[in-house]
């Protein structure tokens, strides 16, 4: 007996799979002008994932010959517009799709925050609607010729992560950067994030330890505000044979720069945190330069 609409269960499953494959191919075609794609992940919220995504974009875009795109798929907590100084901006529709909001000529940004009437509006969506929004961002945004696409994801390993990985399965993702803090409560979730990457065959570029130490601006002495009771990200990376990209010191000016929508790398270019960011960004660029595209290396179903 046929199901709703006259389709049997097997027919409906085939139809859904065909639609999914078609969507994956459409996204692959849309992103063929994007050279490198980087997912930024964190096991939990509050570890500085979006802050890192924003400054990775800022740092890469300092080279005016490098075209950078920043996509915020943290649907329920879109903080990128505020951090990039783009609150109140709106998305425009063109013949070739949605046009991103440009902070600089070589730095475009897209976020669900641009679709809200107010930054204080809550996004109360169930999984399917959030996944549909992610699909629309990946398929319909017209980035043009881009060197780096940075995807700021929600914390954890939710349905949105699976959807993003599946939709990008034919488009070649260079890998993931995982953000943590030194505490074991954060590292425990990072282990889950690493397990997720292995299961979906998503390469891991490396781990970044945020809020590593506090460096006194006068005497330059380092103090551990969040002591790593189990050795921090360094020991975790050694145990799991994952690259540690670097440690970013705790610096109050980072939060101030984000609140003002400015680049901390420009506000405090010689600070220990800014130097750490630049070292990490260089390692990410080197990783992307060494890894050539291999199609369909992520899960596709």
UniProtKB/TrEMBL annotation:
**Can you provide one Gene Ontology molecular function annotated for this UniProt record?**
4 iron, 4 sulfur cluster binding
Q: Which organism is it from?
A: Acinonyx jubatus
Where in the cell does this protein reside? Answer: Cytoplasm; Nucleus
Q: Which UniProt keywords apply?
A: 4Fe-4S, ATP-binding, Cytoplasm, Iron, Iron-sulfur, Metal-binding, Nucleotide-binding
Per its record, how is this protein called by name? Cytosolic Fe-S cluster assembly factor NUBP1
Gene name for this UniProt entry: NUBP1
Q: Which Gene3D superfamilies match?
A: P-loop containing nucleotide triphosphate hydrolases
Report whether Acetylation shows up as a keyword of the record. no
Q: Which PANTHER family match?
A: CYTOSOLIC FE-S CLUSTER ASSEMBLY FACTOR NUBP1, NUCLEOTIDE-BINDING PROTEIN NBP35 YEAST -RELATED
This chain's function reads:
Component of the cytosolic iron-sulfur (Fe/S) protein assembly (CIA) machinery. Required for maturation of extramitochondrial Fe-S proteins. The NUBP1-NUBP2 heterotetramer forms a Fe-S scaffold complex, mediating the de novo assembly of an Fe-S cluster and its transfer to target apoproteins. Implicated in the regulation of centrosome duplication. Negatively regulates cilium formation and structure.
According to its record, what are the GO cellular component terms? cytosol; nucleus
- What cofactors are annotated for this protein? [4Fe-4S] cluster
Q: Report quaternary structure and partners.
A: Heterotetramer of 2 NUBP1 and 2 NUBP2 chains. Interacts with KIFC1.
